[in-house]
């Protein structure tokens, strides 16, 4: 039976540090504040928003939900982002994506102040991830993968890692985080030939393609550590990841569950990023 790399204790450890940092800021008169910009009534966005609001409230971080109509124009949304950029009382801004097709995702990402980009969507933040400069913020979900590996003592140095997916949200940034931990990383995608051979020889596999059962029993090997980032719905209407859990779990050494794995760490990372943004903007470290 594989070790379950549960997210709850990881999130608790992050929250403990964040709470102390919030207290230090408030003692200096700084109230860390996160604005959450949601366009429309997407169920997944609403679910994540509720979790983020609950997490921030528990950590004494102020929140400003900004709910906008689904038919908002691009210029109106950009104007709202500019307003949040200029508000010194707002330290972090989370913009829920994907956005309506009538709005340019690139334009929205470019409009956000990188100093307030707590979920790593701007070029400035991503440049920090890829150069290792420490500037900006890593996408929260990608960082959650690394936080789980670190918490459970998974030594990446010298290990082979296979990342399934090459998005800027997870695949590419998590590959950089693994490289920073001295893993040898292979990024796999829809054009990868003989995907199973790449995943079977890896010591660490990160599945982030967004497809149910994308990683099956014939694609894994004994002793592997599997990080499942996927959020899907199975044939019974239940939440499931990218990994065929029931088939893979008896084979590998450790695996993150879905739900209860990576997703449960993400809001803790988001809160931590908001506090760090407040520290940077007020020069209190």
Q: State the CATH architecture of the largest domain.
A: 3-Layer(aba) Sandwich
Number of domains: 2
Helix content: 40-55%
CATH class of the largest domain: Alpha Beta
SS summary, helix count: 10
Round the mean pLDDT to the nearest integer and report it.
95
Tell me the series of helices and strands, N- to C-terminal.
Answer: EHEHEHEHHHEHEHEEEEHEH
Given the helix and strand composition, which structural class is it?
alpha/beta
**CATH topology (level 3) name of the largest domain:** Rossmann fold
Biggest β-sheet description: 6 strands, parallel
| Poorly predicted segments | none
Radius of gyration (CA) equals: 19 Å
**Gap from first CA to last CA:** 43 Å
Number of strands: 11
Gross morphology is: globular
The spatial strand order of the largest sheet comes to 1-11-8-7-5-6
Output the CATH homologous superfamily of the largest domain: NAD(P)-binding Rossmann-like Domain
Q: In a nutshell, what does this entry contain?
A:
The chain has 285 residues and is of the alpha/beta class. The protein has helices at 8-27, 43-58, 74-86, 105-111, 123-131, 140-151, 171-180, 195-200, 245-248, 263-281, and strands at 3-4, 33-39, 62-68, 92-95, 160-164, 184-188, 204-207, 225-228, 232-233, 239-240, 254-255.
